[in-house]
Amino acid sequence: MSNALARCAAALLVASTVLGEEQPGVSDRSILFGQSAAFSGPAQELGRNMRLGMQAAFREVNEQGGVHGRRLELVSLDDGYEPEAAIDNTRQLIEGERVFALIGAVGTP
Fold first, then answer.
1. Among 23, 36, 48, 30, which residue's Cα sits nearest to residue 75?
2. pTM of the model as a whole
3. H or E element, residue 34
4. What are the residues whose beta carbons fall under 8 Å from the beta carbon of 37, sequence distance 6 or more?
5. Domains of the chain (ranges, CATH numbers)
């Protein structure tokens, strides 16, 4: 899975570089991903396990030198499986944290 993740991140990074624009969440040292998921509430186990899986994959990619020398980093926010919190978190991740991409959403009822 981590090889697929590294290839996907590399493809996104190359595509964004081709556009010639500076990309949010990408620096010379890291690529920042954002996740809004349930870490509390009725779907908390799913959210927690998804985050653990992504952290393991990121760790493996980073141990192999990252993507084009950039470490993969994850910012995770708890939405409690609630739609309004998911919307607020998504705004925070995009506008506040300025993540490169959103991944690992659990969803809401």
1. 36
2. 0.82
3. strand 30-37
4. 46, 47, 50, 51, 76, 77, 78, 79, 104, 105, 106
5. 2-102 (3.40.50.2300)
Geometric angle at alpha carbon 36, from 30 and 42, rounded to 5°: 145
Token pair of 44 as six digits: 């908390």
Q: Which two tokens mark 65? A: 């030198």
C-beta of residue 85 within 8 angstroms of C-beta of residue 39: no
C-beta separation of 6 from 70 below 8 A: no
Which pLDDT tens digit goes with each residue over 62-96? 999 999 999 999 999 999 999 999 999 999 999 99
- Amino acid at position 34, single letter: G
